[in-house]
Every structure is written in structure tokens, then in C-alpha cells.
């Protein structure tokens, strides 16, 4: 199999394994959803996140035929229709979607059940300021986080301080006494607080604020509005009967990668990468592990995560984390050992099929495409300088197609020998 076909096959295999249709079917068969199916009250379903439309479609197809009394079906995501929010940073559409979402959940009755399908991207797609008129402050906070390359562990607690929906705020405003959250994990460590900033889960964002996040928030981190809001959210959620079930996440993604490699009699080597220290260091960790490897058989090296790269305001190009990772990994290998001496393909793709503003899901590079290391490095530096990593990969035929994949469990970074 040629490198392009191999990479596409890996991409498609992982996407199929993470399908919400499969995950919801397993939960229903295991009886996890029995309380939802047999409720005397209405069962409302609220999906928020980049794959929210696909997850809602899966729920309607797999679960709804067995629901005793159907309530509202609400989706805020990308491709959900008139209630799409802005992504990767909140904007006017996000604030409109947040206001509409709050209006909808407030209409539920106390005897109803609210099911929240929460996935990555929810933090940006649906937003509502805690302090009226704070929209510009929220936009500026997200702009700074992007420009400085904050990790999701640093960004989402800061977002929650300014939001009326995050850190349990949405669930607190939902009158339904019984609530079930099915979450698709797109953060390291399976931390449900950080998935979509945990709108249906009480957690305390102040305890997770970094020094620069606290500085960026100014006095908002100690405001009377925030203190009163957090006390109300805690009080309300103590009166709810809430359950939390992980729909899918990193473990399922890694299992799918290992199954793909085993089917091809390849060794699968997971490389632990600390994304919280920034994209450049994460790339170096990944590359050094490959360089140090002593393998005597076909091997797939991989890691699952999201490496933040500082985003320049300059440059008209198209790109995202995955295309940037691919170029930086190739550049590191070319500089340190020569790109021709290492795996026959390296790359990365977003499991949600949406890599930044590129319109792609990611990309890959193979040594035969550019045989001269200096030529490769010059082309890579030019593309990175123009913020056009995705555009450049597409121009040489090494882009992975974008499009809805029904899930979002971070990025898969890989190298194939």
C-alpha cells in the first residue's frame, strides 16, 4: 500500500471506531440508558460541540425509538443549522447560540430528564457572559490565549470565570431534576471539567487558574458577581440527580490505532507527549522518541493530544494544529537526522475532521516528495511564516480531506516506518 492510501486508511479506521452510533448502541444494550428510556417525564437531549449535529443524529437513530416520551432535541455545533456558533474562538454567533440554548433548557420541567451530549468545541460554540456586556472581554481573552499558545488546561478555567454557562452554569439553569451527561473526551487525562468547559458539571475554575490567566482576567477573578454565581450554581446542582458517562475518548482512539497496526502486522508504539508545555516541545519529544527507537519491523509511532502553537495575527494562509505539527515534525527531523533517514510517512489529523481554518483534517509528508533536506526546510519555513501550513500541504497533494467525522477526541499524530 502506498503511503497516501495507508494514511487515509488509518484516518478512516479511527473515525469509524469512534462513531457515536456505535457508542450509544453499546450504552443502550448495557442498560446504562434505561432510566432515560423509561422516564414518565419528557426526555430532552442537548448536544453541544463540534460533532453535536452528528451526535444528535446518532441519538435520534439509535436511542429515540426506545424513548417513552420524547422532549426537545437541541444541537449547537458546526453544521447544526441556524444555531451554529463560532469556532475556534467565540463570536457573535456563539453569544446568540448561548442565549438561545439557555432559553431552551429553562423551558424543561422539573419532572423531565435532561441529557447533555458534550464534546470538544462547546467552549467556543455556545457562550453567554456572566456580566452583561462582557462579550468584548471574552473575545479578547480567547484572542490572547490563541496568540500566546495557551493549553486547554489553561484556557478553559479562564473562560469559565467570564461565563454564565460554563462550570455547571447551564445545568444549574435547567429545572430538570434528573440529568445525564454523555461526554466525548478531547482533553488529556479524561478531565470532564475541561471538555467544553463542563457546562453540566459543577467545578471550581478559580482553583485551576494560571498566573497569566489570572492577570488577563483582571479583577473578574475576584468579582462579587462571580462569587455569587458560583454559590448559586453549587446550590442548584446539589438538588439535582446527575450522572456522568464517558461516551468515547483517548482510550478508544488509541485502541483503534493499535488494532489498525495489528491487522497489518505492525508494531504500535505510543509516545507520551506533554502537550501542556507547548507545541514546539511536544514535537521535539515525539521526534526524539522516533530517533531513539531501535526497530526491526514495520512500526507505527503515535500519540493522541492537542499541542498548542502560538497563533500569529500575520499571514493570510490556512492551517491548524495538525498541519502545523506535520511541518514542524518534518523540519525537526530534517535538521537533526535528515528526513530521508526516518519513517516513510509522518503526519497528524484532527479526529473531528476540522483542522483550524484549513478546511482540511490535517496532512502528512513522505521523504520521496522532497528529497533534499535544505529544500524541505526552506519550503516548510516559508509556509509556517505565512501561516499557510494547510495550504502548502494541499498544494503538494499531501492534505487529508476535511469533513464531519461524528466525533472529537483530540488529534492523532503519527509516523509510519
Key features of this structure:
Rossmann fold; 6-stranded mixed sheet; globular; alpha/beta; glycerate kinase, domain 1; 417 residues; 5-stranded parallel sheet; 11 strands; 41% helix; 2 domains
Would you write up a description of this structure?
The protein has two domains: 19-248, 3-Layer(aba) Sandwich (Rossmann fold); 251-416, MOFRL domain (glycerate kinase, domain 1). The protein has helices at 3-17, 20-29, 34-37, 52-62, 92-105, 122-125, 135-148, 152-162, 169-172, 211-217, 224-238, 250-263, 279-292, 321-336, 373-385, 389-395; strands at residues 43-48, 70-76, 113-118, 178-184, 241-248, 267-270, 299-305, 345-350, 360-365, 399-401, 411-416. With 417 residues, it is α/β, with parallel strands linked by helices. Helix 14 (321-336) runs antiparallel to helix 15. Helix content is 41%, strand content 16%. The protein is built from 16 helices and eleven strands. The longest helix is centred in the last third of the chain and has 16 residues, at 321-336.
Amino acid at each position: 500500500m502506498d503511503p497516501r492510501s495507508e494514511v487515509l486508511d488509518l484516518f478512516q479506521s479511527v473515525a469509524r471506531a469512534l462513531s457515536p452510533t456505535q457508542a450509544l448502541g453499546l450504552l443502550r444494550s448495557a442498560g446504562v440508558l434505561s432510566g432515560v428510556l423509561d422516564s414518565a417525564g419528557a426526555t430532552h437531549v442537548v448536544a453541544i460541540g463540534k460533532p453535536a449535529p452528528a451526535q444528535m443524529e446518532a441519538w435520534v437513530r439509535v436511542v429515540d425509538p426506545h424513548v417513552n416520551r420524547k422532549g426537545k432535541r437541541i444541537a449547537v455545533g458546526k453544521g447544526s443549522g441556524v444555531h451554529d456558533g463560532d469556532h475556534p474562538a467565540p463570536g457573535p454567533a456563539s453569544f446568540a447560540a448561548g442565549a438561545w440554548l439557555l432559553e431552551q433548557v429553562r423551558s424543561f420541567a422539573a419532572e423531565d430528564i435532561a441529557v447533555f451530549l458534550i464534546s470538544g468545541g462547546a467552549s467556543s460554540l455556545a457562550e453567554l457572559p456572566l456580566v452583561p456586556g462582557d462579550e468584548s472581554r471574552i473575545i479578547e481573552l480567547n484572542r490572547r490565549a490563541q496568540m500566546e499558545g495557551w493549553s486547554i488546561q489553561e484556557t478553559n478555567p479562564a473562560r469559565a470565570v467570564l461565563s454564565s454557562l460554563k462550570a455547571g452554569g447551564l445545568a444549574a439553569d435547567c429545572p430538570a431534576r434528573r440529568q445525564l451527561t454523555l461526554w466525548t473526551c478531547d482533553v488529556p487525562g479524561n478531565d470532564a471539567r475541561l471538555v467544553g468547559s463542563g457546562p453540566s458539571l459543577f467545578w471550581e475554575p478559580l482553583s485551576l487558574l494560571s498566573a497569566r490567566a489570572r492577570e488577563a482576567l483582571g479583577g473578574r477573578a475576584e468579582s462579587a458577581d462571580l462569587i455569587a454565581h458560583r454559590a448559586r450554581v453549587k446550590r442548584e446542582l446539589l438538588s439535582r440527580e446527575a450522572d456522568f458517562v464517558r461516551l468515547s475518548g483517548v482510550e478508544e482512539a488509541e485502541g483503534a490505532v493499535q488494532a489498525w497496526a495489528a491487522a497489518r502486522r505492525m508494531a504500535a508504539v505510543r509516545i507520551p507527549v506533554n502537550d501542556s508545555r507547548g507545541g514546539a516541545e511536544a514535537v521535539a519529544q515525539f521526534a526524539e522518541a522516533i530517533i531513539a527507537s531501535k526497530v526491526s519491523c514495520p512500526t507505527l509511532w503515535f500519540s493522541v493530544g492537542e499541542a498548542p502553537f502560538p497563533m500569529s495575527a500575520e499571514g493570510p494562509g490556512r492551517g491548524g494544529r495538525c498541519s502545523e505539527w506535520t511541518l514542524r515534525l518534518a523540519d525537526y527531523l530534517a535538521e537533526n537526522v535528515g528526513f530521508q533517514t526516518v519513517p516513510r510517512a509522518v503526519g497528524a489529523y484532527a479526529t473531528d475532521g476540522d483542522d483550524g481554518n484549513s478546511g482540511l483534517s490535517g496532512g502528512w509528508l513522505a521523504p520521496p516528495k522532497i528529497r533534499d533536506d535544505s529544500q524541505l526546510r526552506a519550503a516548510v519555513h516559508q509556509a509556517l511564516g505565512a501561516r499557510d501550513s494547510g495550504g502548502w500541504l494541499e498544494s503538494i497533494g499531501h492534505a487529508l480531506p476535511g469533513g464531519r467525522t461524528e466525533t472529537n477526541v483530540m488529534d492523532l499524530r503519527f509516523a509510519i516506518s
